[in-house]
Amino acid sequence: MHQHPSALGLAPRSTAVSPQNMVDCGFDIALQRPASPVTLIRPHAAARAARYFVEKFPGRSMYAVKANPSPDLLHVLWDNGVTHYDVASIAEVRLVARTLPDATLCFMHPVKAEEAIAEAYRVHGVRVFSLDSLEELDKIVRATDGATDLTLCVRLRVSSEHSKLSLAAKFGCPPSEARPLLMAARQASDALGICFHVGSQAMSPQAYAEAMERVRLAIVEAAVTVDVIDVGGGFPSSYPGMEPPPLDRYFETIHRAFEKLPVSYSSELWCEPGRALCAEYSSVVVRVEKRRGDELYINDGAYGALFDAAHIGWRFPVTVLRPEESRARLVAFSFYGPTCDDLDHMAGPFLLPADVRAGDYLEIGMLGAYGAAMRTAFNGFGSDETAIATDEPMATLYGEDVADVAAPEPGKVVKL
Known about the structure:
Elements: E1 22-23, H1 26-32, E2 38-41, H2 43-56, E3 60-64, H3 71-79, E4 84-87, H4 90-99, E5 104-107, H5 114-122, E6 128-131, H6 134-143, E7 151-155, E8 163-165, H7 175-188, E9 191-195, E10 200-202, H8 206-222, E11 228-230, H9 247-259, E12 268-271, H10 275-278, E13 282-292, E14 295-298, H11 307-311, E15 318-321, E16 330-336, E17 345-353, E18 361-364, E19 386-389
Parallel strand pairs: 1-19, 2-19, 3-4, 3-12, 4-5, 5-6, 6-7, 7-9, 9-11, 11-12, 14-16
Antiparallel strand pairs: 2-13, 8-10, 13-14, 13-18, 15-18, 16-17
Helix pairs in contact: 2-3, 5-6, 7-8, 8-9
Protein backbone atom coordinates (compact mmCIF):
# COMPACT_ATOMS: atom_id res chain seq x y z
CA MET A 1 0.00 0.00 0.00
CA HIS A 2 2.70 2.49 0.96
CA GLN A 3 6.39 3.01 0.56
CA HIS A 4 8.26 5.48 2.75
CA PRO A 5 11.97 6.00 3.44
CA SER A 6 11.49 4.85 7.02
CA ALA A 7 9.35 1.85 6.19
CA LEU A 8 12.35 -0.46 5.97
CA GLY A 9 13.92 0.69 9.22
CA LEU A 10 12.70 -2.62 10.56
CA ALA A 11 11.14 -1.83 13.90
CA PRO A 12 13.05 -2.89 17.02
CA ARG A 13 11.84 -5.41 19.54
CA SER A 14 9.65 -4.03 22.32
CA THR A 15 11.11 -1.33 24.57
CA ALA A 16 9.83 -1.45 28.13
CA VAL A 17 8.04 1.50 29.68
CA SER A 18 7.60 -0.19 33.05
CA PRO A 19 9.41 -2.95 34.94
CA GLN A 20 6.88 -5.51 33.75
CA ASN A 21 6.22 -4.21 30.22
CA MET A 22 2.61 -5.37 30.68
CA VAL A 23 -0.57 -3.39 31.23
CA ASP A 24 -4.27 -4.12 31.24
CA CYS A 25 -5.14 -1.21 28.94
CA GLY A 26 -4.26 2.28 27.77
CA PHE A 27 -5.46 3.87 31.00
CA ASP A 28 -2.62 2.13 32.87
CA ILE A 29 -0.16 3.91 30.58
CA ALA A 30 -1.90 7.25 31.11
CA LEU A 31 -1.43 6.84 34.87
CA GLN A 32 2.34 6.78 34.28
CA ARG A 33 2.06 10.15 32.46
CA PRO A 34 4.72 9.45 29.81
CA ALA A 35 6.12 12.47 27.98
CA SER A 36 6.39 10.58 24.66
CA PRO A 37 3.88 8.46 22.73
CA VAL A 38 3.61 4.84 23.81
CA THR A 39 2.65 2.05 21.45
CA LEU A 40 0.40 -0.62 22.92
CA ILE A 41 0.74 -3.98 21.21
CA ARG A 42 -1.77 -6.79 21.54
CA PRO A 43 -0.19 -10.09 20.52
CA HIS A 44 -3.43 -11.96 21.22
CA ALA A 45 -5.25 -9.85 18.61
CA ALA A 46 -2.68 -10.60 15.90
CA ALA A 47 -2.67 -14.28 16.90
CA ARG A 48 -6.45 -14.41 16.55
CA ALA A 49 -6.33 -12.79 13.11
CA ALA A 50 -3.62 -15.19 11.95
CA ARG A 51 -5.55 -18.23 13.08
CA TYR A 52 -8.68 -16.94 11.41
CA PHE A 53 -6.94 -16.75 8.03
CA VAL A 54 -5.06 -20.02 8.50
CA GLU A 55 -8.25 -21.89 9.45
CA LYS A 56 -10.83 -20.22 7.22
CA PHE A 57 -9.23 -18.95 4.02
CA PRO A 58 -9.65 -21.72 1.42
CA GLY A 59 -5.97 -21.75 0.49
CA ARG A 60 -2.62 -20.42 1.69
CA SER A 61 -2.27 -17.09 3.50
CA MET A 62 1.03 -15.21 3.37
CA TYR A 63 1.61 -12.05 5.35
CA ALA A 64 2.40 -8.83 3.48
CA VAL A 65 5.38 -7.66 5.54
CA LYS A 66 5.20 -4.03 4.40
CA ALA A 67 2.08 -3.50 6.53
CA ASN A 68 4.13 -3.88 9.73
CA PRO A 69 7.69 -5.28 9.67
CA SER A 70 8.02 -5.66 13.46
CA PRO A 71 9.98 -8.80 14.34
CA ASP A 72 7.68 -9.24 17.35
CA LEU A 73 4.68 -9.41 15.05
CA LEU A 74 6.42 -11.77 12.64
CA HIS A 75 6.99 -14.18 15.52
CA VAL A 76 3.35 -13.97 16.61
CA LEU A 77 2.11 -14.73 13.09
CA TRP A 78 4.56 -17.61 12.68
CA ASP A 79 3.56 -19.11 16.03
CA ASN A 80 -0.07 -19.08 14.88
CA GLY A 81 0.40 -20.84 11.57
CA VAL A 82 1.49 -18.22 9.02
CA THR A 83 4.49 -19.78 7.26
CA HIS A 84 4.67 -17.74 4.02
CA TYR A 85 5.63 -14.06 3.77
CA ASP A 86 5.14 -11.55 0.96
CA VAL A 87 8.33 -9.48 0.84
CA ALA A 88 8.65 -6.42 -1.38
CA SER A 89 12.34 -5.47 -1.07
CA ILE A 90 15.68 -7.06 -0.36
CA ALA A 91 15.59 -5.43 3.10
CA GLU A 92 12.34 -7.25 3.87
CA VAL A 93 13.82 -10.47 2.48
CA ARG A 94 16.79 -10.14 4.85
CA LEU A 95 14.58 -9.23 7.80
CA VAL A 96 12.27 -12.22 7.51
CA ALA A 97 15.13 -14.58 6.67
CA ARG A 98 17.00 -13.73 9.88
CA THR A 99 13.84 -13.48 12.03
CA LEU A 100 12.12 -16.65 10.76
CA PRO A 101 14.79 -18.82 9.11
CA ASP A 102 12.30 -21.54 8.14
CA ALA A 103 9.75 -19.20 6.55
CA THR A 104 8.94 -19.32 2.84
CA LEU A 105 9.58 -15.95 1.20
CA CYS A 106 7.74 -14.75 -1.90
CA PHE A 107 9.19 -11.68 -3.64
CA MET A 108 5.94 -10.11 -4.83
CA HIS A 109 7.07 -6.63 -5.93
CA PRO A 110 6.64 -6.58 -9.73
CA VAL A 111 9.67 -4.31 -10.37
CA LYS A 112 12.88 -5.38 -8.63
CA ALA A 113 16.56 -4.58 -8.87
CA GLU A 114 18.45 -7.35 -10.62
CA GLU A 115 20.90 -7.47 -7.70
CA ALA A 116 17.99 -7.96 -5.29
CA ILE A 117 16.64 -10.86 -7.31
CA ALA A 118 20.05 -12.51 -7.41
CA GLU A 119 20.62 -12.18 -3.65
CA ALA A 120 17.11 -13.33 -2.84
CA TYR A 121 17.52 -16.43 -5.01
CA ARG A 122 21.11 -17.37 -4.20
CA VAL A 123 21.46 -16.31 -0.57
CA HIS A 124 17.97 -16.53 0.91
CA GLY A 125 16.38 -19.35 -1.07
CA VAL A 126 13.57 -17.29 -2.62
CA ARG A 127 11.90 -19.17 -5.46
CA VAL A 128 8.66 -17.20 -5.93
CA PHE A 129 8.76 -13.93 -7.86
CA SER A 130 6.08 -11.71 -9.35
CA LEU A 131 6.34 -9.71 -12.56
CA ASP A 132 4.14 -7.67 -14.87
CA SER A 133 6.27 -7.25 -17.99
CA LEU A 134 8.55 -9.13 -20.37
CA GLU A 135 11.41 -6.87 -19.23
CA GLU A 136 10.99 -8.05 -15.65
CA LEU A 137 10.82 -11.67 -16.81
CA ASP A 138 14.12 -11.25 -18.66
CA LYS A 139 15.63 -9.68 -15.53
CA ILE A 140 14.56 -12.61 -13.36
CA VAL A 141 15.92 -15.14 -15.85
CA ARG A 142 19.28 -13.33 -16.02
CA ALA A 143 19.59 -12.86 -12.26
CA THR A 144 18.92 -16.55 -11.58
CA ASP A 145 20.99 -17.82 -14.54
CA GLY A 146 17.93 -19.41 -16.12
CA ALA A 147 16.92 -21.34 -13.00
CA THR A 148 14.41 -24.13 -13.55
CA ASP A 149 12.88 -24.14 -10.06
CA LEU A 150 11.00 -20.82 -10.14
CA THR A 151 7.37 -20.05 -9.41
CA LEU A 152 6.60 -16.96 -11.49
CA CYS A 153 3.41 -15.02 -10.76
CA VAL A 154 2.22 -12.68 -13.50
CA ARG A 155 0.42 -9.71 -11.97
CA LEU A 156 -2.66 -8.61 -13.88
CA ARG A 157 -4.06 -5.10 -13.70
CA VAL A 158 -7.53 -5.13 -12.13
CA SER A 159 -9.97 -2.51 -10.93
CA SER A 160 -9.74 -0.87 -7.49
CA GLU A 161 -13.22 0.63 -7.66
CA HIS A 162 -14.44 -1.28 -4.60
CA SER A 163 -11.47 -0.26 -2.43
CA LYS A 164 -10.69 2.82 -0.37
CA LEU A 165 -7.13 3.07 -1.73
CA SER A 166 -6.46 2.30 -5.38
CA LEU A 167 -3.56 0.12 -6.48
CA ALA A 168 -4.61 0.01 -10.13
CA ALA A 169 -2.22 2.57 -11.64
CA LYS A 170 1.34 1.58 -10.80
CA PHE A 171 1.53 -2.19 -11.34
CA GLY A 172 -0.19 -4.87 -13.35
CA CYS A 173 -0.07 -6.20 -16.88
CA PRO A 174 -2.87 -4.73 -19.05
CA PRO A 175 -5.18 -7.14 -20.91
CA SER A 176 -3.52 -6.45 -24.26
CA GLU A 177 -0.16 -7.73 -22.96
CA ALA A 178 -1.30 -10.63 -20.80
CA ARG A 179 -1.28 -13.41 -23.41
CA PRO A 180 2.37 -13.11 -24.57
CA LEU A 181 3.60 -12.53 -21.01
CA LEU A 182 1.78 -15.56 -19.62
CA MET A 183 3.09 -17.74 -22.44
CA ALA A 184 6.68 -16.55 -21.94
CA ALA A 185 6.49 -16.94 -18.15
CA ARG A 186 5.09 -20.45 -18.58
CA GLN A 187 8.19 -21.41 -20.56
CA ALA A 188 10.55 -19.91 -18.00
CA SER A 189 8.92 -21.28 -14.84
CA ASP A 190 8.54 -24.53 -13.01
CA ALA A 191 5.16 -23.29 -11.74
CA LEU A 192 3.13 -20.46 -13.26
CA GLY A 193 0.95 -18.20 -11.16
CA ILE A 194 -1.41 -15.31 -11.76
CA CYS A 195 -1.76 -12.61 -9.11
CA PHE A 196 -3.54 -9.30 -8.73
CA HIS A 197 -4.37 -6.66 -6.12
CA VAL A 198 -7.86 -5.17 -5.85
CA GLY A 199 -6.63 -2.20 -3.79
CA SER A 200 -6.31 -1.58 -0.07
CA GLN A 201 -9.35 -1.82 2.23
CA ALA A 202 -11.70 -3.54 -0.23
CA MET A 203 -15.20 -2.81 1.04
CA SER A 204 -17.01 -5.46 -1.00
CA PRO A 205 -16.30 -9.12 -1.83
CA GLN A 206 -17.41 -8.25 -5.35
CA ALA A 207 -13.94 -6.78 -5.91
CA TYR A 208 -12.50 -10.31 -5.91
CA ALA A 209 -15.27 -11.78 -8.05
CA GLU A 210 -14.63 -9.22 -10.77
CA ALA A 211 -10.86 -9.66 -10.59
CA MET A 212 -11.20 -13.45 -10.84
CA GLU A 213 -13.26 -13.02 -14.01
CA ARG A 214 -10.34 -11.08 -15.45
CA VAL A 215 -8.08 -13.99 -14.46
CA ARG A 216 -10.41 -16.48 -16.16
CA LEU A 217 -10.33 -14.53 -19.42
CA ALA A 218 -6.54 -14.28 -19.31
CA ILE A 219 -6.13 -18.04 -18.84
CA VAL A 220 -8.50 -18.80 -21.70
CA GLU A 221 -6.83 -16.32 -24.06
CA ALA A 222 -3.31 -17.54 -23.30
CA ALA A 223 -4.24 -21.25 -23.16
CA VAL A 224 -1.65 -21.94 -20.47
CA THR A 225 -1.60 -24.27 -17.48
CA VAL A 226 -1.73 -22.23 -14.29
CA ASP A 227 -0.51 -23.68 -11.00
CA VAL A 228 -1.17 -20.78 -8.59
CA ILE A 229 -3.91 -18.19 -8.27
CA ASP A 230 -2.91 -15.42 -5.85
CA VAL A 231 -5.75 -13.01 -5.00
CA GLY A 232 -3.35 -10.60 -3.29
CA GLY A 233 -4.30 -8.36 -0.40
CA GLY A 234 -7.02 -5.80 0.15
CA PHE A 235 -8.79 -7.64 2.96
CA PRO A 236 -10.27 -4.92 5.17
CA SER A 237 -10.32 -3.96 8.81
CA SER A 238 -12.91 -1.92 10.68
CA TYR A 239 -12.49 1.86 11.06
CA PRO A 240 -14.91 4.70 11.84
CA GLY A 241 -17.09 5.13 8.76
CA MET A 242 -15.62 1.99 7.16
CA GLU A 243 -17.37 -1.08 8.51
CA PRO A 244 -16.92 -3.86 5.93
CA PRO A 245 -18.87 -7.12 5.58
CA PRO A 246 -17.63 -10.17 7.53
CA LEU A 247 -14.41 -11.65 6.19
CA ASP A 248 -15.98 -15.05 5.61
CA ARG A 249 -18.09 -13.49 2.84
CA TYR A 250 -14.87 -12.50 1.07
CA PHE A 251 -13.53 -16.04 1.46
CA GLU A 252 -16.74 -17.58 0.12
CA THR A 253 -16.73 -15.31 -2.92
CA ILE A 254 -13.08 -16.08 -3.68
CA HIS A 255 -13.62 -19.82 -3.29
CA ARG A 256 -16.62 -19.85 -5.63
CA ALA A 257 -14.71 -17.91 -8.27
CA PHE A 258 -11.65 -20.12 -7.91
CA GLU A 259 -13.75 -23.26 -8.42
CA LYS A 260 -14.94 -21.88 -11.78
CA LEU A 261 -11.47 -21.17 -13.17
CA PRO A 262 -10.04 -23.39 -15.94
CA VAL A 263 -7.20 -24.71 -13.78
CA SER A 264 -6.29 -28.22 -12.66
CA TYR A 265 -7.44 -29.78 -9.38
CA SER A 266 -3.89 -29.43 -8.04
CA SER A 267 -3.71 -25.66 -8.55
CA GLU A 268 -3.16 -23.65 -5.37
CA LEU A 269 -5.05 -20.62 -4.07
CA TRP A 270 -3.05 -17.95 -2.24
CA CYS A 271 -3.74 -14.60 -0.61
CA GLU A 272 -1.56 -11.80 0.80
CA PRO A 273 -3.27 -10.18 3.82
CA GLY A 274 -1.43 -7.29 5.42
CA ARG A 275 -3.85 -4.88 7.07
CA ALA A 276 -6.28 -7.64 8.06
CA LEU A 277 -3.59 -9.48 10.03
CA CYS A 278 -2.05 -6.54 11.86
CA ALA A 279 -4.42 -3.56 12.11
CA GLU A 280 -5.75 -4.74 15.46
CA TYR A 281 -2.25 -5.49 16.75
CA SER A 282 -1.45 -2.04 18.09
CA SER A 283 -2.66 1.38 19.15
CA VAL A 284 -0.84 4.46 20.40
CA VAL A 285 -1.28 6.51 23.56
CA VAL A 286 -0.60 10.21 23.01
CA ARG A 287 -0.76 13.33 25.18
CA VAL A 288 -2.68 16.48 24.37
CA GLU A 289 -0.16 19.31 24.60
CA LYS A 290 -2.52 22.16 23.67
CA ARG A 291 -6.13 22.81 22.74
CA ARG A 292 -7.14 25.57 20.34
CA GLY A 293 -10.88 25.49 19.80
CA ASP A 294 -11.63 22.19 18.08
CA GLU A 295 -7.94 21.54 17.30
CA LEU A 296 -5.81 19.37 19.57
CA TYR A 297 -2.01 19.46 19.50
CA ILE A 298 -0.76 15.94 20.27
CA ASN A 299 2.71 14.39 20.48
CA ASP A 300 2.42 12.04 17.50
CA GLY A 301 1.35 12.81 13.98
CA ALA A 302 1.91 12.77 10.23
CA TYR A 303 5.59 11.84 10.53
CA GLY A 304 4.81 9.21 13.12
CA ALA A 305 2.07 6.62 13.45
CA LEU A 306 -0.60 8.91 11.97
CA PHE A 307 0.77 9.17 8.43
CA ASP A 308 -2.46 7.81 6.95
CA ALA A 309 -4.64 10.12 9.02
CA ALA A 310 -2.73 13.12 7.63
CA HIS A 311 -2.03 12.21 4.04
CA ILE A 312 -5.09 10.22 2.97
CA GLY A 313 -7.63 11.37 5.53
CA TRP A 314 -7.92 7.99 7.24
CA ARG A 315 -10.01 8.03 10.39
CA PHE A 316 -9.08 5.97 13.43
CA PRO A 317 -11.03 5.21 16.62
CA VAL A 318 -9.98 7.41 19.52
CA THR A 319 -10.84 7.63 23.21
CA VAL A 320 -9.80 9.82 26.12
CA LEU A 321 -8.08 7.97 28.98
CA ARG A 322 -9.46 9.18 32.31
CA PRO A 323 -10.37 7.43 35.56
CA GLU A 324 -13.97 8.58 35.23
CA GLU A 325 -16.19 8.51 32.17
CA SER A 326 -16.83 11.95 30.73
CA ARG A 327 -20.45 13.06 30.49
CA ALA A 328 -19.64 15.83 28.03
CA ARG A 329 -21.12 15.61 24.56
CA LEU A 330 -18.94 14.34 21.73
CA VAL A 331 -17.31 16.95 19.52
CA ALA A 332 -15.47 16.59 16.21
CA PHE A 333 -11.78 17.47 16.65
CA SER A 334 -8.83 17.65 14.31
CA PHE A 335 -5.24 17.00 15.40
CA TYR A 336 -1.92 18.72 14.90
CA GLY A 337 1.21 16.62 15.38
CA PRO A 338 4.37 17.72 17.22
CA THR A 339 6.57 18.85 14.32
CA CYS A 340 6.96 22.39 12.95
CA ASP A 341 5.33 21.42 9.65
CA ASP A 342 1.82 22.63 8.77
CA LEU A 343 1.37 19.35 6.89
CA ASP A 344 1.51 17.62 10.27
CA HIS A 345 -2.28 17.88 10.46
CA MET A 346 -4.92 15.16 10.80
CA ALA A 347 -8.32 16.55 9.76
CA GLY A 348 -10.35 13.66 11.16
CA PRO A 349 -12.99 14.22 12.37
CA PHE A 350 -12.06 12.52 15.63
CA LEU A 351 -14.96 12.37 18.08
CA LEU A 352 -14.01 13.13 21.68
CA PRO A 353 -15.72 14.63 24.74
CA ALA A 354 -16.15 18.40 24.52
CA ASP A 355 -14.17 18.87 27.75
CA VAL A 356 -10.92 17.31 26.49
CA ARG A 357 -7.99 19.49 27.51
CA ALA A 358 -4.22 19.84 27.56
CA GLY A 359 -2.66 17.13 29.70
CA ASP A 360 -5.25 14.51 28.76
CA TYR A 361 -4.09 11.25 27.27
CA LEU A 362 -5.79 9.75 24.22
CA GLU A 363 -5.63 6.25 22.79
CA ILE A 364 -5.79 6.05 19.00
CA GLY A 365 -6.62 2.54 17.82
CA MET A 366 -6.18 0.27 14.80
CA LEU A 367 -2.66 1.49 14.05
CA GLY A 368 -1.02 -1.92 13.70
CA ALA A 369 -1.22 -1.64 9.90
CA TYR A 370 1.16 0.97 8.46
CA GLY A 371 1.28 3.04 11.67
CA ALA A 372 4.56 1.56 12.91
CA ALA A 373 5.93 1.10 9.40
CA MET A 374 5.58 4.75 8.40
CA ARG A 375 7.26 6.34 11.42
CA THR A 376 10.18 8.71 11.03
CA ALA A 377 12.21 10.80 13.47
CA PHE A 378 11.60 14.04 11.54
CA ASN A 379 12.19 17.20 13.56
CA GLY A 380 13.55 15.08 16.41
CA PHE A 381 10.15 13.67 17.37
CA GLY A 382 9.46 9.98 17.77
CA SER A 383 9.29 7.23 20.34
CA ASP A 384 10.07 3.53 20.56
CA GLU A 385 8.33 3.12 23.92
CA THR A 386 6.15 0.03 23.82
CA ALA A 387 4.01 -1.96 26.23
CA ILE A 388 1.95 -5.12 25.89
CA ALA A 389 -1.78 -4.62 26.53
CA THR A 390 -4.12 -7.46 27.48
CA ASP A 391 -7.45 -5.83 26.61
CA GLU A 392 -9.30 -6.06 23.31
CA PRO A 393 -8.51 -3.77 20.36
CA MET A 394 -10.82 -0.83 19.77
CA ALA A 395 -12.46 -2.62 16.84
CA THR A 396 -12.37 -6.19 15.51
CA LEU A 397 -13.62 -8.28 12.61
CA TYR A 398 -12.86 -11.54 14.40
CA GLY A 399 -15.87 -12.87 16.26
CA GLU A 400 -16.58 -15.68 18.67
CA ASP A 401 -16.42 -18.33 15.96
CA VAL A 402 -12.65 -17.85 15.75
CA ALA A 403 -10.53 -20.39 17.63
CA ASP A 404 -9.97 -18.95 21.08
CA VAL A 405 -6.72 -17.09 21.59
CA ALA A 406 -6.25 -16.06 25.19
CA ALA A 407 -4.79 -12.71 26.15
CA PRO A 408 -1.67 -12.81 28.30
CA GLU A 409 -2.30 -12.94 32.02
CA PRO A 410 -2.13 -9.38 33.43
CA GLY A 411 1.02 -8.71 35.39
CA LYS A 412 2.96 -11.49 33.72
CA VAL A 413 6.01 -10.60 31.66
CA VAL A 414 5.67 -11.91 28.12
CA LYS A 415 8.70 -12.15 25.89
CA LEU A 416 7.74 -12.28 22.23
